[in-house]
Each structure stands twice: as structure tokens, then as C-alpha cells.
Design goal:
mainly alpha; 58 residues; elongated; single chain
Amino acid sequence: MQKYSKVIAATVGGALTGAGTGAVVLPEGSPWYAYVLMALVTAVVPAVVTYFAPKNAN
């Protein structure tokens, strides 16, 4: 269960970061779906990396 909570946290953090970065980086006049795509990509990548990351050794 701890693995899924980390994935959820990475997804939420990535989406918020992507939305904020998209507002600054994307040029003026970009379509609305560019912001959604930016947030989606920055949410999915950390989630996948977190899910497949090996467990820390003790």
C-alpha cells in the first residue's frame, strides 16, 4: 500500500509542477489542451518512475 501512496503523491506533485511550468514556459496563444498535455506528461512520468523504482535496501 505504501507503494501506491508514493505513486499518488508523485502524480499530484508532477501535475501541479507541470501546470505551473506550463503557464510560464508555453508561449502566449497556446491552445488550452497544451496546458493539459503538459500537466499530464509531467504527472505520468514521475508516477511511472516511482512505481517501478526498486525498494531501498536496509
